[in-house]
Structures are given as C-alpha cells and as structure tokens.
Write a structure and sequence with these properties.
Layout lengths: L6 E5 L3 H17 L5 E5 L3 H8 L15 H8 L5 E5 L11 E6 L7 E6 L1 H11 L28 E3 L3 H10 L4 E3 L5 H10 L5 E5 H6 L3 E2 L5 E2 L7 E6 L13 E6 L3 H10 L2 H17 L7 E8 L2 E10 L2 E10 L3 H13 L2
Parallel strand pairs: 1-2, 1-3, 6-7, 6-8
Antiparallel strand pairs: 3-12, 4-12, 5-8, 5-11, 9-10, 13-14, 14-15
Helix pairs in contact: 9-10
Length: 342
C-alpha cells in the first residue's frame, strides 16, 4: 500500500511566521500522531518589498502581499494548509479557498517600548572611561511604567501601522509619528541605537512568540533583545487591536475533507466567534489593517463583547456593543453601521 503523502503547511520565512507555524505543527502532530506533517517555506511579495523598503520606507504594504504566494501553493496543491497571522489575511479570500481554523488567541495587546533612562545614565558614566559610539549620548530614555500619557511632549514614536498612528494621534497629537521597517529584532535595534527614535509600538503576541518577555521591572528581555529597553502593555481600550490580532489563521482549500477534519481539532471556538465579528466589521467598513480601523471582540459567557474605532470625518470614533456569542457577523455589521452613521 502506498504511503499517504504528508500534510504540507505553507508559511513565510520570517522568524515570527516560523514560530507560529511550528506552534501549529506541534498541535497537528499531537492531535494526529499517525499523520505526517511538513513545513514549506515560501517567500511572499510582501517580504521582498518590505526588505527593499528598509532603507526608504514607502508607507504600509497591502496585507494581501503577505499571503498571495501561499494561496497559490494551496490552489496548485503544493501545500494543504497556509499558516498566517490572521491580521494579515484579507477578509475576501480567493475562490476555492477558505479559513479552516483559528488558534486560541494569544495576548491581543500592543506594547509600548522605549529606552531605559537609568540604563542610559549608567552607560554614560561608563563612557567617561571607555570608548563610546558617537550620537549615543543624545538618546533619550524614560522611567519604567511610562505609558502613552506619561511620555514627554514632542517625542518621536515609530510604527508602520495606520491603526496605531491614528489612535496615538487622537490621544497625543503632540507626538511625532514615523514609519519603521524590518523584522522585530531589527526594529528593536533601531530603537536602541538611533537617537532620532524615542519609542515604538509592537504586538505583544509577536514578542511572546519570539520568546521575549517583560520582567517585573518593566525590562524587555530575550536572547536577541538589545540591552536597555523597557516595555509596557497598553490596555485594549487604550489601543484597540487590529481585527484578528494575536490569532493564527489556517487557510485551506474549500472542500478538502481530509484537511477540514484536521482543522476541526485545531479550531478554538471562542476565538473563531470573536475574530468572525472583527472580520465582519472590517469587511463592512471596507478597510484593512493598512487603514485606521480597529476592532476587538471577546467572549463573555454566552455574549460577545466588541469595541471598535475608526477614523470617520477626520476624527477617531469609538463604539461598543454586546450580542449573542452565536451571532458574531451580526455584531460586526451592527458596529460598522453605527460607526458609518457618525
């Protein structure tokens, strides 16, 4: 009897994408120990363009650029499951493809990161007796636990997310916002070393999947984290996440019963209902994570609570509502209609 072919998981080659895919791979092997699973790394157009734009950022890249090549592999039968950060997956999928499952959502919050003022002070003392890099003395730092409201006027904050930029601008119009490119470690190194940058915002889930963490003193720690960085998590009411943030989405061929059976074991129901509401809201608003639209839903017993913000008429508007957990699309559409009418 011919050996059954392995299930192929397609993914991007970034450290974060690989970490997420290995997380799903481990779940697959635990749930189906008799099946064979393999990872196929595919470089997407978005990866190529992002690399090319590092020296000269040109604004946000459309999210579909990070999924197209993975979807082509699915359609051609070169892969069976495409593993995505769900926030990168467009709400309208190509014909013949479907969202098969979503993982249990990790921490959905964003993280504000900046240099440690006390660490910089200690480094300056060392610099009096040791050789020190030019410009480092100009770097500014802040105290542990400093949030958005506590940052001094006129600082420069780096983020390439239109959603984050709009929400920061609404709360702190005095803050200068700049684009930043590169993987997580590259961005952290830029913040640590470039005096023209004072702070940045990254997703908590991405940091945690790379095994970075914030200790009891507010220090951001990890094998590849530069020394002297502090971080604080921003509550979702202060910085509403991107739809689907912190959830991993598994895209499959519609009608593939073998893979559908696998996805049924991988899917987390409450997260599925929450992100369904968020993606319904996103679709109704006609936006994406490259636009100033944000939404976050969470199951609360048999109810689904959702809050959303969007830029309407030049101002950030906020809405929230609760609805039966079994009707997530209705909740998303209701909030989109309320915002659109403001």
């Amino acid at each position: 009897m011919a050996k059954e072919r392995p299930i192929i998981l397609a993914t991007r080659g970034s450290a974060l994408a690989l970490a997420q895919t290995h997380f799903i791979l481990d779940q697959c092997r635990a749930a189906f120990p008799r099946l064979s699973f393999e990872i196929k790394i595919i470089k997407t157009t978005g990866d190529k363009l992002q690399t090319a734009s590092l020296a000269n950022p040109q604004g946000n890249l459309p999210k579909g650029l990070f999924t197209k090549e993975l979807e082509v592999a699915l359609v051609k039968g070169q892969a069976d499951m495409a593993v995505h950060s769900l926030k990168d997956l467009p709400v309208d999928l190509p014909p013949g493809l479907a969202l098969g499952a979503v993982s249990k959502r990790a921490d959905p919050r964003d993280v504000l990161i900046y240099r440690d003022a006390e660490w910089l002070k200690a480094q300056a003392a060392r610099a009096q007796v040791e050789e020190w890099s030019p410009g480092h003395a100009e770097r500014r730092g802040f105290l542990p636990g400093t949030g958005l409201a506590g940052l001094p006027p006129g600082i420069t904050l780096a983020t390439s997310s239109a959603r984050r930029q709009a929400q920061v601008k609404a709360r702190r119009p005095d803050i200068k916002l700049v684009e930043i490119r590169g993987n997580v470690v590259t961005r952290l190194e830029k913040l640590a070393n470039r005096p023209e940058l004072d702070a940045m915002i990254l997703a908590a889930a991405g940091l945690e999947r790379l095994h970075f963490h914030i200790d009891a003193h507010g220090r951001l720690l990890g094998d590849a984290v530069p020394d002297g960085l502090l971080a604080i998590k921003l509550d979702v009411s202060e910085m509403v996440p991107c739809p689907g943030q912190a959830a991993i989405g598994i895209e499959i061929r519609a009608g593939d019963e073998r893979v559908q059976a696998i996805c049924q074991r991988l899917n987390h129901y409450n997260t599925w209902q929450a992100v369904t509401a968020e993606r319904a809201f996103l679709k109704a608003m006609g936006g994406g994570c490259h636009s100033a639209v944000a939404a976050y839903a969470e199951a609360q017993g048999e109810r689904l609570y959702m809050q959303a913000v969007a830029e309407v008429g030049g101002k950030m508007q906020r809405v929230e509502a609760r609805h039966p957990l079994s009707e997530p699309q209705t909740l998303g559409q209701l909030l989109a209609a309320e915002l659109s009418g403001k």
